[in-house]
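Obj: model holo form, ligand = adenine.
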Amino acid sequence: MSSPYTIQVLSIFTEYFESPLATSITGKAIEKGLFAVEPVDIRAFATDKHKTTDDVPFGGGAGMVMKPEPLVAALEFAHARQPDALRILLTPQGEPFHQALARELSQAPGLILVCGRYEGVDERVIDGWIDREISIGDYVLTGGEPAALILIDAITRLLPGVLGNVCSIDEESFSKPSLEYPHYTRPREFRGRSVPDVLLSGNHKLIADWRRAQSEKRTRERRPDLLDNHRDSND
Ligand code: ADE
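Output (holo structure tokens):
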């Protein structure tokens, strides 16, 4: 069997990933060998007695900067194991993460995700050893670890066999970006609130039309930017 889609994650807190990756769909898919996540401890590449990974910024200012030596040693270790993998730094300065990028990265030959900490990473590391910088949103986290988890989740659910329900991914890939229609399950009546009649009608065409209309209405009301962006990308 060829080796599965592999993601190496470089971090100074590799234990951060243990529980989320062992849980639910992700945990089962890893167990089945559908993909692999391999944490790489950056601190293990520090050579001084205290295993230092940060230092004060040249030019002064608040906060600390990730030192180049241990981080580059960790990157070289990961790159030697997976020479074709894309090296990605998680940072608020990166390009915004979205569904189309998740799809693109799910087709890469593998990933090396670098979780920054402190104020940031020495720029020379980015210049020499990073292919792409990605942000998960316009807010600042204490480190790249939660962002790496989000990428891992969004990307690996697109890999063959992970979700089981191929149909739901096909719908996402070929339809324009839009919000989901409302979902309901049993009971029909819950604390005085009932399920819309159309969903109980058994008329598949009516149900599909209702869902499409609900999806469009929600998108228009809550995320009109998605409709604008789609129009832009097709112009
Ligand atoms: N590290 C800190 N904040 C981040 C963000 N918003 N996206 C990606 N990595 C980050």
